Amino acid sequence: MTRVFSGIQPSGELHIGNYLGAVKNWVALQGQHESFFCIVNYHAITVAYLPDDLRRRTRDMAISLLASGLDEAKCTLFVQSDVPEHTELQWIFNTVTPLGELERQVQFKDKAGKQEQVMAGLLNYPVLQAADILLYLADTVPVGEDQVQHLELSRVVARNWNARFSPDAPYFPEPQPKLTPTRRIVGLDGQAKMSKSLGNTIGLLETPDEMWNKLRPAITDPARQRKTDPGTPENCKTVFELHKAFSSAETVKEVDENCRGAKWGCIDCKKVLHANMVAELTPIRTRAEALQANPKQVDALLAEGGRKARAVAQETIRTVKDKMGLDA
Ligand code: SF4
């Protein structure tokens, strides 16, 4: 059976870009494969942060994930720091990862260029990612396109370790990417990425009124200055893409026709989208409110997920130490 691993940063409440770009896909995968989903808080500490804030963001992320439909009976949802074997395996993998491979990583170069002082953790971040995945012997990783290079590094690490310590029968699989089917959701302001730091998102748990207040002024096709101007849905990346994600195929066809034929205005179009978003997201918000009212239940679910994950992780570490002569 395929084993799936994926991680998400503890960034607090999910926004609809994260939901459509990753989490909705996880919910679909959890019933089909043995799945491990991890809130990767060790990855969140390579930049300055406040401990209480990280704690809150971790719990909020767990609530968003559970409310979105991750089900503890169908997957293992846990927090990375509850399973210390992640960092143990990372150290081991540091010893089989060429420095040049890490320095070549595009994300490292991007992030390092923006920081005054670069910490070693930022450079070694992809090694921890390799450990996250391989600790569970996962062979499939649902990723966005920007993560494919990191996954290549996980394969290099697996290959190098296997060549040294398990040459006859490779112990670690070389994990393959499973590209997320949902397209990347652009920001409400038309920027290429929907991101909290850019302030161009709609939160997954926002009320219908809050959603409308953000959707109403969202950028559309600039050619549609007046209601009578015909438009091109492909040039309306935010609203049309969101229709494709939240509306039925029939509605998307109608949107296309009404836009090209100037049969309605952008506000009419956005009202239909808003209604469909509210229909899909209201049950998620209701579940989240129930979880927010019962934080002990969330903590208990995460603790149980951590126990399940740790049992698998300890088994891997036992084998790794045995093969490396570290079990004396
Ligand atoms: Fe975008 Fe809809 Fe306006 Fe066309 S009618 S430009 S798809 S908001």
Automatic annotation (TrEMBL):
Name of the molecule in the record: Tryptophan--tRNA ligase
Task: Name the catalysed reactions.
Answer: tRNA(Trp) + L-tryptophan + ATP = L-tryptophyl-tRNA(Trp) + AMP + diphosphate + H(+)
List, alphabetically, the InterPro entries matched. Answer: aa-tRNA-synth_I_CS (IPR001412), aa-tRNA-synth_Ic (IPR002305), Rossmann-like_a/b/a_fold (IPR014729), Trp-tRNA-ligase (IPR002306), Trp-tRNA-ligase_bac-type (IPR024109), Trp-tRNA_synthetase (IPR050203)
The record describes the protein's role as: Catalyzes the attachment of tryptophan to tRNA(Trp).
Q: One GO CC term of this entry?
A: cytosol
Gene Ontology molecular-function annotations: ATP binding; tryptophan-tRNA ligase activity
* Positions of ATP binding: 9-11, 17-18, 144-146, 185, 193-197
Motif 'HIGH' region: list the residue ranges.
10-18
What keywords does the record list, in alphabetical order?
A: Aminoacyl-tRNA synthetase, ATP-binding, Cytoplasm, Ligase, Nucleotide-binding, Protein biosynthesis
Family matches, as Pfam families: tRNA-synt_1b (PF00579)
**Localization:** Cytoplasm
Organism of derivation: Pseudogemmatithrix spongiicola
Q: Where does L-tryptophan bind?
A: 132
Q: Give the domain of life.
A: Bacteria
Specify the enzyme's EC class, one word: ligase
Q: Does the keyword ATP-binding apply?
A: yes
Q: Where is this motif: 'KMSKS' region?
A: 193-197
Enzyme Commission number, as recorded: 6.1.1.2
Which terms does the UniProt entry file under GO BP? tryptophanyl-tRNA aminoacylation
